[in-house]
Amino acid sequence: MEINREDGMNYSPVSLAEISERLKEGELNFAVIGLDHGHIHAMTQGLTEIGATPVAVYDEDFSRTKAFAEKHHIPACVTSVETIMEDPCVNLIVSAIRPDKRTDLGLQAMLHGKDYFVDKPGALTLNEVKKIRETCSETGRKYIVYFGERVHVEGAVYAQKLIEDGKIGRVLSITILAPHRLNKESRPEWFFDKNQNGAIIQDIGSHQMEQFLTYSGAEDAKIVHSAVANYANKDKKDFYDFGEFSIVTDNGTAGYCRLDWFTPDGMRVWGDGRVFIVGEKGSIEIRKYIDAGNEKFDDGDIVIFTDAQRENRIECRGSVGFPFFYRVAQDMINRTENEITQSHILKSMELTIEAQMKAVVIE
After folding, report:
1. Nearest partner of 1 among 56, 54, 71, 48, judged by Cα
2. Containing domain of residue 124, as a range?
C-alpha cells in the first residue's frame, strides 16, 4: 500500500508493527460512501488491517469508485447511497465526503441502524453537532470522527500511553505545531471554500483540539484566543492559510496550537508536526513525521521523554502500531465506549467550531 509522505491529503499510514488483535471474518462489515478527501484511503487501510470487511463503495464519480474498489479489494461498486443504506449486512458507513455533506450522511446512516466513521471535521456548525447528538441518543448508533494526527501516528499513541501510565504526572501545558503542505494546484475548489470545507481551525485544528482533550484528560475547555489570516493566497478570498488558538481545559491544562499551510518545498514530508507536553514530573516531545535535518527518510514517530532519572529518545515506528482501529471496532461490536466516547468526539467538534467562530482575522 502506498504511503504518500509529501501530501497530507493522501497520507495513508501502513502498520509496520505486528497486528496481534484481529476481527473474525464478517464480524464488522463496512461500506464506503464519498471519496472527496484522500483520508478515506487511510481510514479504509486502518480498518482492513484489523480484519474489518469492506463490502461496497459508492461515489458520485463512478470512475473514482472503480479505482478505489480495485485499490482496496472491495467487491461491489454500487450506483446509489440508498443501496448501501438498505443493505442489512452493512454495519458501518465510512466516509470522506465533502465536509459540508458529512453530517447529513451520518444522520442518514444512523437512522438506518448503522454506525458512522467519518473524516475530520465531522461537522461544520454547532447546529449540526446538536443534530448529531440528538440522533446518537435517539438511535443508539455511533458517530466516530477520524482524528488521524493522534490515532494514526505511532509516536502520538506512545506518548498517550506514557501520560496514562503517569510517567510525567499531571499534564500542565500542551503546545502543538501543525504545519501542512498546501499543494495548491492539486486541491479541489471546495477545499478553498470555508462554507464547504470549514476554515483552517476546523480543517486542521480539529485534530489538535481532540489531542488537547485526550492528552490532558479533560472533558471540556474554554477558548482563550483564536486568530486566522490569509497571508499568501489572496486569490482565494474564503481561505485562511494561517491559524492559531489557545485554550484552558476544565482540569487546568493550558494549550496552544499553531496551524499553517507553509511547509517549505525542501521538506521531505508534508509537515513537521510537533507536540510538546509539560507535566509536573516530566516532559514529552513528539516528532510526528520527520526529524528535520536527519539524513534518514523514515525518521518520524520519535518521542523524546524526559523525567527525573534520564532523557529518553524512543523511535516508535514499527513497534507501536495503531490500536485505535481494533479497539473502536470492538466498541461498535459490543456497544461500549472503551476506546473513545461519543461525548469526547462531540465536545472536540464543538470547541473547534467555537474557536473558528471567535477567531480574529489578521489583515
Report:
1. 71
2. 8-147
| pLDDT of 297 higher than 60 | no
Q: 40 is written with which cell numbers?
A: 478515506
Length of the chain measured in residues: 363
Residue pointed to by grid coordinates 463503495 = 57
Q: Indicate whether 50 pLDDT > 90.
A: yes
Domain of 54, CATH number, reads 3.40.50.720
Band (1; pLDDT cuts 50, 70, 90)? very low
For residues 344 and 331, give the distance between their C-alpha atoms in angstroms, rounded to a whole number: 14
Given a cut of 70, whether residue 57 has pLDDT beyond it is: yes
CB 57 within 8 A of CB 65: yes
**Percent of the chain whose predicted confidence (pLDDT) is above 90:** 91
Q: Which of 148, 153, 152 is nearest to 301 (CA)?
A: 153
More confident residue, 197 or 2: 197
* Structural domain count, the chain: 2
Would residue 199 count as lying in a domain?
Answer: yes
269-288 in b/e form (b: 16+ CB < 10 A) is bbbbbbbebbbeebbbbbbb
- The pTM (predicted TM-score) of the whole model is 0.95
Q: Is residue 96 in some structural domain?
A: yes
SS3 for the chain is: CCCCCCCHHHCCCCCCCCCCCCCCCCCCEEEEECCCCCHHHHHHHHHHHCCCEEEEEECCCHHHHHHHHHHHCCCCECCCHHHHHCCCCCCEEEECCCHHHHHHHHHHHHHCCCEEEEECCCCCCHHHHHHHHHHHHHHCCCEEEECHHHHCCHHHHHHHHHHHCCCCCCEEEEEEEEECCCCHHHCCHHHHCHHHHCCHHHHCHHHHHHHHHHHHCCCCEEEEEEEEECCCCCCCCCCCCEEEEEEEECCCCEEEEEEECCCCCCCCCCCCCEEEEEECCCEEEEECCCCCCCCCCCCCCEEEEECCCCEEEEECCCCCCCCHHHHHHHHHHHCCCCCCCHHHHHHHHHHHHHHHHCCEEEC
